[in-house]
Design goal:
heterodimer; A: mainly alpha; 2 domains; two-stranded antiparallel ribbon; elongated; B: mainly alpha; Peripherin/rom-1_CS (chain B)
Chain lengths: 344, 347
Amino acid sequence: MALMLVKFDLKKRVKLAQSVWFMYWFAVLAGVLVFSMGLFFKIELRKRSELMDNNESHFLPNLLILMGLIACGINAFGGKVCYDSLDPTKFAKWKPMLKSFLVFCVVFNALLFVTALLCFLMRIPLQFTLAEGLRNGMKYYKDTDTPGRCYMKRTLDLMQMEFRCCGNDNYRDWFEIQWVSNRYLDFSAKEVKDRIGSNVDGQYLMDGVPFSCCNPSSPRPCIQLQMTNNSAHYSYDHYTEELNVWKRGCRDALLSYYGGMMNTIGALVILVIMLEIAVTVGMQYVNSSLSTLANPEDPESESEGWILEKTVKETFTDIMDKMKAMGKGGKVEEGGEAAVATVS
Amino acid sequence: MVVMKMKFPFQKRVKLAQGLWLLSWCATVAGATTFTLGCVLKTELRRRAEVMDNADIHIVPNTLMIVGLASLGINYFASKICQDALDAGRFPRWKNFLKPYFAASCFFTVLMLLAVIMSYAMKGSLESSLKIGLRNGIRFYKDTDTPGRCFQKQNIDRLQMEFQCCGNNDFRDWFEVQWISNRYLDFSSKEVKDRIKSNVDGRYLVDGVPFSCCNPSSPRPCIQYQLTNNSAHYNYEYQTEELNIYLRGCREALVNYYMGLMNTIGAGVLSIFILQGSVLVSLRFLQTAMEAVAGKENTEIETEGYLLEKGVKDTVMEYLNPVLKFFLLTNQVEEGATTSGATPATT
C-alpha cells in the first residue's frame, strides 16, 4: 500500500512537472539567499574580530555559505530534470540517477535542519568569546603606541558610540583598569603619586570613563571624570543620574545585535527547508508517476504517483534488511575462507 | 529652410519605430530613476532640516521629482505613438495631439537640465542657510529645558559625531557661546562669579568644547576643557595638537557632503537628459516621415523626415505668438478703441 497515492493522466503530469520546475527556480533563489546571508554574517564577524580577541568561530557562516552553494547546485539540476521530464527520450537518460538524487536531497534537508538549529544555539559560545574579547580590549585601550594594539582605542571608542554602550557589564568596568596611558601622566604631581601608591599593581585608577561613553541625550554637559564624587559637580547625584553615560554594557549590546542577526538567519533557513521539502516531494511524484505508466509505449496513458512505494513501516524494515544483507554478505565470505582454511 | 532633413525608406522607418519603442521603455525606467533620485535627495535634506535656516535648496529635489513623473507620461505616450506609427490607419488620430505634446516634452526636458544647473548654482544659498542654522544650534545648545529647543543639544552632538566636525567655522565658535546651562552652574563659587563678571553680557564662557567634538583617533584621552592652557595638561601643546578634537567646521563638512551627493545625482540626471532628448528627436523624425505617407496608396514609399519645418527662429515665434497674443490681446483692443475714438475727432 503506497504512501499518499495519486492518479495521474497526461494533463496532470504536465501540470505537475511545470509547477515543480517553477518551484525549483524559487529554490535556486533561496539557495542564493542562504549563500549571501552566510557571507554577510562572515563579514560582520570579521568587522569586529578585534573585540572578540580574533578568536571567534567562523564555523556557522562557512557552513551557511557551503549549504547555499550546494542548494543552488541541487536545485538547478532538479529544475533541468523536471524540464526534461515532459520529453520521454530526454527523461530516459536521467532516470537511473533519480533515486540516488532524491536520497541525497533528503540528506541535504536534514543537514539544513541541523544548520538552522546551530543558528539558534551559537549564541552561547559567542557570549563567552565576547566577554573575553571585550575585557582584553579594554585592557589595551591605553596602548596606542604598541604596534598591533594602537587601533584598539579607536575601535572601542567607535563601538561604544555606535552601539550606545559603556564597558563590559556596565560603566564601572572602566574604574578597574588604567585607561590613561603613562605617557600623559605627570609623575611628579602629588595626585598621580597618591593614586599609583593606593593600589597593589601601581596602576593609575580613577572613577572616570572615556568620552565615548557619554550620552548625547543628557540635558547637561557630560560628566566623565570624578563620577562617584557628588560634591565635585553642582547639582549632581550619581545614584539617580541616568542620562549622563550609557548604562548598558557592550557585551549585552553586541550579543543582542548578533543574536538578532542569527535568529533572523535561522528563521529564513527554516523557510528554505520547507521549500526544499516541497520540491523534493514534487520530484518524487514526478519520478514515480513517470515510472508507472500503464502502457510504457503510450505517453498519454494513466499512471500513479506516490511518496513511498510501501508504507513507512515496510520501507523502514526493507532498509534495515538491506543493511543486514550487506553486513551478512561480508560474513558469508569470511565463513567461506574459514571453511577453505579448515579443509586444507 | 528645413532643419536636418533626412531620407527615410520604408525599412529605415520600421527600424526607427522599433528602436524608438525600445528606447522609450528605457527612458520610462530612467524617468522613474529620476523621481527616486529626487526623493533620496529630499530625504537627506530633511534629515538635517534643524540646522538649515531656510528651505530654498529644496527646489532642486522638487524639480527632479516633477520631471521624473512628467517623463513617465511623456515616454508612455511616445511608446504608444511609435506603436501606431507604422499603421497608416491609426496614425492620423494622433495628429492634433502632437504639437502640444512636443511643446510640453521640450519644456520638461529643458527643466531637467535646469535642475542640474540649479544644484551647482545654489551652493551659496545652501552655505548661508547652514551658517545661520548652525549658529542658532550652537547658541541654543544649552536650552535643554526650553520647549521647542530641547533637542538642539542632542542634534548638534549627533551631527558633530557623525560628520566628524566641531562648531560652525571651527572649534573656536564654542568659546564665544555659553553652552553650559545655568542650571548646572554653582553661582556661589568664586570661579563662576569671576567668569561671569569678565564679559559684558554676563555669560559663562569657557575655552572648552562639548564631548561630541572629541576625535576617537587621538592617542590620548580627550582634552575638552582648558584647551588653550598648555600648563593645565601634561605634555600638551594646543598649537601643534591635531588629533585631539575635530579641526573641521560643520558647515564645511555638510556643504561638502551635500555637494558630493548632488554631483553624483547630477551626473545621472545628465545622462537621463541625453536619453530623453534622443527619444524626442527620434519621435519627431518618425512623425514627419509618417506625415508624408498619409493619404497615399502605397505606404512603402520613401519619405523625408526633418526636425523643424521652418528655421529655429521662425518655429520659436510660431509657438510664442499665441502666448504673446493672449497677453497683448487686451492692449490691442484698447489701442484700437482709442485710435477709432481719435479719428472721428480729427475728421
